[in-house]
User: What shape does this take?
Amino acid sequence: MKPVSGGWSLRRRVITLLTVVGVLLIGLATAEAAMAARNRTQIDAILNQTGPLRVQSQELLNAVLDQETAVRGYAVSGDPADLSPYEAGLDQEKATISAMRALLDDYPQIGQELQVVERTAEQWREAVAEPVIATTQQDGTRAGQALVTEQARQRFDEVRSAVDDLQQEILAAREQSAANVRNSSNVLVILLIIAAVVVVVAGAVLLLSLDRMVIRPLTGLATQVREVAEGDYQHRIATVGPPEFTQLGDDVDAMRQKIASDLAEVREARERIEWVNSQLQKQAEELTRSNRDLEQFAYVASHDLQEPLRKVASFCQLLQRRYAGQLDERADQYIAFAVDGAQRMQRLINDLLAFSRIGRLTTGFVDVDLNKVMGDVAGQTEAARQYADAELTWTELPVIRGEEPLLTNLLANLVSNSIKFRRPDVPPKVHISARLVGAEWEISCQDNGIGIEPEFADKIFVIFQRLHSKDAYPGTGIGLAIVKKIVEYHGGRVWVDTDVPEGTAIRFTLPALPEDVEAAAATDPAEQPQPVTPGDTTPADDASSALPEHSAEADQPDRADGPPESGRTGDMRETVG
Assistant: This one.
């Protein structure tokens, strides 16, 4: 992806807007916090300073009044008990003044007024109260009352006026604090309103910016993408807005161009495929016609060609039986050649018919017990085994899905070949075994015959491929080709294991039933055989006695009707028959 360039990016714009809003909100929050602290201080001044000062000023006035009343009463009665309110008022005055001074750190003007009250009260006591008390004690009530004059009352009025001035100053301070509280509260409310306005304005700006820079470009891009998705792959996608969206539009357009290019290639490929399909359809039609012709040929070969061939063979055999020894030796040889050629032609036609029927004339796959099949094979090969004194054994074989006649033909061909290609003066032994490898059964046909060289291991499965002359080992050379076709028809493979120490081992695979695979998977994995590839050597299971033999009718493979004339031809050993 190319780097975003040109103009402010969407991220930069959003971050800038959020930074400005954040700075404003932080400033407003700081101012609100300071104003709230100031407001709290002013409220504390009202509640804890000016309020108590007002109460204390009233208490101070009451204390002074108590003193003046007590002095007047004592001057009238002369009873010392009447001076108790004077002493109490004096103590109350001192306590109140002391308490008030503790609250006057922030109010110097009130302190000055308090000093005036204290000084005026002291002057009143020195000029009026103490002389009246002393005169009354010494000269009696008449003398004391004589001192309570209008001037004395004026003196006390000065004290009262000083207390009133103190109260007015306290009230003015309280009103000022209340006004400060109201002002700070109003400022705090204004700051909160400003913060709300900032948030609303920032939200509106952000919403409008998102609409202009995000929603509209995305809507335009989505509209163009839908046009492309509807099939207009040549429509160029152009995007306006922040650099990120421009880059996104360029990337989407590049993707459109790539898709358009790929679609063009797909169209070309589809056209080529359609052309190939048309050619394949033509070839399939040709193949159908060819198969139809092949079926007609097979029908002709199995009916029309057989009749004259049987006639030729029959008359040649009649000539051989009737005129044998009556003609010269060369005539007898010519007749023998004709009889042998007709018989071999019959066997070749029958084998070709059998080869062509594999996979074409099907009866459907069923569960086939290979043990039963081996019983049928034993019955089919009984004559050849008795002639060659051969031993046929097999271990427990599985049940597989397939066509029983074809599997019987398969095993009969393998057993017949093993008996045919035996070593001179050595009784042939043939053993059939099976083992489960993965999801397949690997079935082996092991013999003690003449063996086969590794370089000929692949040639023996080719139709009509012979490694020996027909005089050495009779046959048409099609038996193992039939074996390979049957195995492949059942979904397996066949090969020659060239690493066995003696004889020949032909192995082939057949798909296993699911229940056999599941049963094997449930056992200990260490007991499972490892998969092998063609050419691997695996010791065969110990041979067991042959199961009861049963006869069965099936297409007969090439059999050894007589002993081979020789057990070896040059360096080439076992072949198909």
